[in-house]
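writing this on my phone so excuse typos. first protein, seq and then structure
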Amino acid sequence: MKIMGVGGGAREHALAEAIARSTYSPKVYWVSELRNPGIYRIVKKTGGEYALAKTTDPIRVAELAERWGIDIVVVGPEEPNFHGIPDEVERRGIPCIGAKQKLSIIEMSKAEMRRLQWRFNIPGKLLFKTYRSYEEAIRDLEKHAETLTWLQNVALKPARQAGGKGVKVVEDVQAYLRKEKRQFKERHIRWIEQYMSKYGDIEERILIEEKVWGPEYTLQCFVDGKTVVGMPLVQDNKHAYEYDIGPETGGMGSYTGKGYLLPFITKEEYDRSLEIVKAMVNAIQKVTGERYHGFIAGQMMLTEVEGPTLIEMYSRLGDPEGVNVMAMLKTDIIEIFEAIIDERLSKVKIEFSDVATVVKAMAPKGYPDFRDLAKNHPVYVDEKVIEEAGCKLYWGSVHLNEDGSMKSGGSRMIEILAFGDSPQEASVKIEECLKKKPVRLLDGWQLFYRTDIGSEEMIRKRTEIAERVRRLYKYREERGILGKRVDWLPKVGRIDPVKNLLEELKR
């Protein structure tokens, strides 16, 4: 059997590893824009081939699949889905594990995702507004400043999936800072518009959502068009530096608890989250008329307003969250792929190891905002030291040259995973490993990573926040007001922002 993967990050390395350990003994083929050292080794070991190509070029990727006689194509990142790689591959009669272009709009357009959720009345909703320009957004904010109070405390986002960049949360509650907060909103909305100008596949540029608070978590799933099977929950940590400060990244690390739950999420909350993801799959299939074959994920938050709340959807595995679950997967992944293709996923018993995991990403200084500074540094990794420390290495944004030397690609360079009886134990194992400095850049350029991911302190803080949120949303649920919002304004009276949004969507 020949399996071809698309994409060159640590998530794809974890996918390639899972494929290679299949009892089917497949030949592994791969396409990426940088030659990932870990994937390249797997490809050579299994007798496959590796090609460097633009992973958003459907014709080129499909031609390679045809030339190699591939049986199944597996897509890792989101952009190949957005550009129709699964569509072109399947048009040529090759099954693909990946969301087709129309289906992937559930991730590509955060605005379409939110409209879909409101249209089908799927729980875990947020109030939102979208705009095509800076001027349109500013006019509307000024117009509704006094009548829609939720627009004062907001999350400002690019309306398109933009690699985890550009999200800013503004809490505008201090009257003496209102002018400064308004100026900040205006500056960031302008930045979003400029940043979005490089994307020509979506008209809406700016998304404004109501601000909510609570711990985030990711629920990743396998989908076959009829059945959605949830995986263990993972918490991703987006901010670049310790204690959740610094710019947002694609993810500096992640962890799981033992079993399917995180230390701060209950079984009931897991089940509610899974129902939300299932409902979103059903909705996007109904709207597009396409069958969803592949991975999907809900980026969730436990909030006081809705309980389990949908923040974003992914039309693929997360990175680094995908590394956690692929390392835990016990079921043969090719059996899962074949079941997805044949739409008989409900017949397969999917199992994961009963172990906690932690992943910590290392990146060159300059990432995420100044990636050119993080590129082209000579990379050295002592894999033996990492292995002897009981950890696993997954290669990310690194290019393996023909002569065996390696250069950094400008993003998260490597991800290191450890197993443990608890996330705290796994986190300590990685820390002990990294004290031996097995990873460095030979020109002296600095690397950074987060020491706090999976730590005792982090999990305690997440648990305390979850308990506070849970008391609040349960209180609302007991009184039948979960998900309801009401404003009361002087001289205006009662305002129902949910009703206003629904009327606006109908128009």
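second protein below, same order as before
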Amino acid sequence: MKDMNGIKIIAVDHGYGNIKTANCCFKSGVAVYDAKPPLAENLLIYEGKYYLIGAKHKDYDGSKVDDDDYYVLTLAAIARELLRESLTSVKVFLAVGLPITWVVKQGAAFRDYLLKNKSVEFNFRGVDYHIDFAGADVFPQGFAAVADKLRDFGGSHMLCDIGNGTMNLLRITDHHADSQQMFTEEFGTKECAAKMRAALMEEYQVDVDESILNAVMQSGTADVDEGYLAVMTDAARKYVREIFAVLRKHKFDPKLMRLYVVGGGGCLIKNFGEYDASRTFILDDICATAKGYEWMAEIKIRKSGGVV
């Protein structure tokens, strides 16, 4: 969170798997109730409804404005950031993003969706908040994670942002992003989880908890039977090979360009991929894109003379 003339710039990276700010990460699921649920550690109360935050992951549907989920998740993200500085009543400028190829077609609708209320009051984790919205900007997802590092991108690079729902690709050549070479594929890490679950069902006729799948994807191992782990590992390797097949489809050549990977899928390439480590850089910071949104918003506001 950054301060600009008394306005708090708060970035929110609205993933299908996780919501990220510059300083926190939590699951993007929402469960809504008409009455207070008995177990409600992450409860958000808004307009008479009770929202359990992080109950599950959001399903991929190609749009983020079809229901109130991402609005409520944004409120929770704002509260998580404000809690760090013991603030409860502030004016907020939102810095957010969408997959690269969605920004032009969906950016205005997403901005309007997030700013549908000029001010909002809600309660999160027992604390009351009052937020006045000063505005919002929508930036290209993935690219934001490296926007402040373009000076390091001499030569030819392929930026690969792998989230839960989508895989975004962008060619960067001699420090400049190529708007003619950007692609969004519905091939996020949820595909890997589905392949691992299906492989276990086929081999051992067992269903596996999502927490185990996440552990294997993130660390390469889990506290499970060796046979089960081998099946999941093999499925993850197949998924990563398919990632590189998608890259080649979009003319990635590891001998001519470097690969820069951001997003949660980077750990899969690191744990299960075969690649040239001298020409591949994997950014481990899951909050990197949100930090990039903040940086881009701050630069844009400064260039406008502080006008939001």
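The radius of gyration is 20 Å. thats all i got for now
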